[in-house]
Amino acid sequence: MALKVALLGCGVVGSQVVRLLNEQSRELAERIGTPLEIGGIAVRRLDRARGTGVDPDLLTTDAMGLVTRDDIDLVVEVIGGIEPARSLILAAIQKGKSVVTANKALLAEDGATIHAAAREAGVDVYYEASVAGAIPLLRPLRDSLAGDRVNRVLGIVNGTTNYILDRMDSLGAGFTESLEEAQALGYAEADPTADVEGFDAAAKAAILARLAFHTPVTAADVHREGITEVSAADIASAKAMGCVVKLLAICQRSDDGSSIGVRVHPVMLPREHPLASVKGAYNAVFVEAESAGQLMFYGAGAGGVPTASAVLGDLVAVARNRLARTFVADGRADAKLPVHPMGETITSYHVALDVADRPGVLAGVAKVFAANGVSIKHVRQEGRGDDAQLVLVSHTAPDAALARTVEQLRNHEDVRAVASVMRVETFDNER
Amino acid sequence: MALKVALLGCGVVGSQVVRLLNEQSRELAERIGTPLEIGGIAVRRLDRARGTGVDPDLLTTDAMGLVTRDDIDLVVEVIGGIEPARSLILAAIQKGKSVVTANKALLAEDGATIHAAAREAGVDVYYEASVAGAIPLLRPLRDSLAGDRVNRVLGIVNGTTNYILDRMDSLGAGFTESLEEAQALGYAEADPTADVEGFDAAAKAAILARLAFHTPVTAADVHREGITEVSAADIASAKAMGCVVKLLAICQRSDDGSSIGVRVHPVMLPREHPLASVKGAYNAVFVEAESAGQLMFYGAGAGGVPTASAVLGDLVAVARNRLARTFVADGRADAKLPVHPMGETITSYHVALDVADRPGVLAGVAKVFAANGVSIKHVRQEGRGDDAQLVLVSHTAPDAALARTVEQLRNHEDVRAVASVMRVETFDNER
């Protein structure tokens, strides 16, 4: 007896899910133990052209009617956004259907409701495609590291911003022209806000943090800074330090383990770090776990076909669970660690200051750091005379103290301008 | 009611499994839904010092008695080697116990027997720790890519050889001194044969190939060349081409999809490839799948603690399956693709020849390539006079034709010596 799949959405990802379900029906049936059959496809408009292989008789605009139909076993949601996706998924769950979704926004905003409903109903909600596209990442975090303790997750989880920063790094180009190039090539949308302001990465950070720390985290808990302020000067300053600039989603347990910090912002990263070599629109997530040590997962973070591949992997798993009359209770958030504010997060800053080249300037600047309880890790002076620049990297300190230091430097009489400020991420025993 | 675990072996990995089971008992119980309890630990000698936390009352030398005990639910095998591991695992399976093993040698030699017995008995055999230590790799290959089609797997799966090659690359050192340094630092064993001759990597290649292509593959099917012949000249020649030398396990579907090739040998790899930046004793596996595109999994490939982490991840999974009265039928080999011999594998060669610097030499050398049906991709001459070297890279051709070409060049009147021969791995649309 075939398992019937309802598909919500038939756009870039949905049409590829249909194609793969058709093309690989025999292999999928073997791996599951029974065939999968598409029972219906919910779309907004019936008159739109669909990919080949999409049977028009399966199309319907009544998504709610489809997901609650008695003969449907599994629901795949690839419409995105909060509503109507949430209502449809909850209705499907209450009717005992298992769900596969790629919806990062919904899971980041209201994953707790979805997971609780699934546990209650005894069904699966799988969502590998919601973070880092085709990269098998969430299930390894949830399952393979189930016997381990994760301390930090660092992710390049937005391909658009990685493409832009990579162009800025390799060509010395500015943000605006790199964004325009990304838009021309289809790597960035006409309205790039969700990507370049870090909203997309913040939703993924929330999902990663919950999985890594078993703690409820929503997008609102995530400190978020985008890349629109990253300048060619920042990139050049990073290069001079042997670093590269990346937009990272960082989920980190505090040193005493009593709280977590979740944030998205540009970071200077040593060039020899595995994340530094992630080029173009690729994604990668670096995990530091107590026993497993350092792990990295790398691959295509977006695109219809890779995302559909992740959806199919999930579909095989939920179909097998269904046949075995079992399910995986996900959304475990029983550790309930508080999320500390950004100001309490321990970070380290790189600061480049345009200064007058005269004795006493460093002493004055160092005094500002000291007054805020921040110690300086290294300092170097570049140029002479009116072009003199003082480049400082701090030791780690609470982010609020570092931010205050920079604020006071902006108004310092010896400082003509703050040319570049960016957080530096440190590794291993560097801290 | 607790699930009872029998542990076979209490060495580097086993003692860490005990430690983690003790330290994380509460977290593990939560994730599984019931506590895990160590029912017994089989060791060869009772009088040996064990790590703290190993209860002496649990030790026994009667491994067979332990795994067949009625109260044992799950068996963890970390003794390695073919026997007695195989007999113990088969006895446990026949008694209805699920098994977690890190035993690459056994799975590569006789995985078919183990998997068939497990299917028959309706129990799990999980073996994440057998390839690439702590890196969650086998389950993503098996589960997350279940709806995809894998075309090629390239793995750095032996940390010892990667460490040695990395030292040769970064310091210009020779093989022998790099091996000695690796031995002094504990990265290589006193008898390094299994690592440097590629036996360890070949066993892992067999396991990866079966998972990737659903085809029976044993270590005997794997073409194997180690790194003992890799010279400082090869490394320098690779550098001149913008390449790095890595020992790779390569599992590849033929272009027409009708057969597979599985091989372990040194490879020149472009420096910008993600595998090229895998340093020291780290492991990484690069996967090319039809829909998912390029994926890479990176992490610690060995060591007691990382390997124990992988064992615990598996233990959580099999424990949950047991509670749900389900199991995962692994060892699927129904595609039954033939493994083609190395001579039929399509590869590409880098060849550096010491030649006399006089007109006509290139013509003579090119004629040898042409006679074997091999076309030349690029050629450059280095040096003049008696130091003249001709460096050629071929287009792809059957490996036998390339090997024959090199053999004939060795005896060619214009060639004073073949200074370096190595396969070059190509990517994307390069071929």
From TrEMBL, chains A, B:
It comes from Thermobifida fusca TM51. The active site is at 204 (proton donor). SUPFAM superfamilies: ACT-like, Glyceraldehyde-3-phosphate dehydrogenase-like, C-terminal domain, NAD(P)-binding Rossmann-fold domains. L-homoserine binds at residue 189. NADP(+) binds at residues 8-15. Residues 350-423 form the ACT domain. GO terms for biological process: methionine biosynthetic process; threonine biosynthetic process. The keyword NAD applies. It is an enzyme of class 1 (oxidoreductase). Keywords: Amino-acid biosynthesis, Metal-binding, Methionine biosynthesis, NAD, NADP, Oxidoreductase, Sodium, Threonine biosynthesis. Belongs to the homoserine dehydrogenase family. It catalyses: L-homoserine + NADP(+) = L-aspartate 4-semialdehyde + NADPH + H(+); L-homoserine + NAD(+) = L-aspartate 4-semialdehyde + NADH + H(+). This is Homoserine dehydrogenase. It comes from the Bacteria. Its EC number is 1.1.1.3. NADPH binds at residue 104.
